[in-house]
Amino acid sequence: MNNEVFHGTTILAVRHNGTIVVAGDGQVTLGNIVTKHKARKVRRIYNDKIITGFAGATADALTLSEKLEKKLERYNGNLTRACVELAREWRTDKYLRRLEAMMIAADDENTYLLSGNGDVIEPDQGVISIGSGSTAAQSAAIALLENTKFGPEKIVEKAMKIAGDLCIYTNHEVTMEKI
Q1: What does the pLDDT look like over 14-48, one tens digit per residue?
Q2: Is the pTM of this model over 0.85?
Q3: What is the end-to-end Cα distance of the chain in Å, rounded?
Q4: Fewer CB atoms < 10 Å away: N or C end of the chain?
């Protein structure tokens, strides 16, 4: 088993009260060493109308982000169509199939998780996450959503803190974007 593999991240998206918030931690780990604390894994694309967050190999994730932006341009900003077309290409293209990353993409109306298996998943409860700390972050966000009157930013902030407290591949240097 090769220890020289980049691990982890946590990306969380919460849609609540007409607002979407996407956040990601900043930790990059190589084997058992933290190599970076403030990586930016959440970005705005397509004239700042779309927020993406990625987990996995950075170069692969950036390639996917560029591909998604090209699809958005081709389909006039239609996030649903762009995500479906990207997932189709990702699954069938010989080069793209090798990419090791997952992505969350959101606009003012839609939130999707995209994977190399051809998945384009829209969350049922407006909460979705990817990465090593995703189970903790998503569970915390759903519990906060159902049991508090917090807005989406506070829910994401608290859920990411919980994920950072529990997951050794997730830290508290969080980047947050909202629409």
Answers
A1: 999 999 999 999 998 887 889 999 999 999 999 99
A2: yes
A3: 42
A4: N
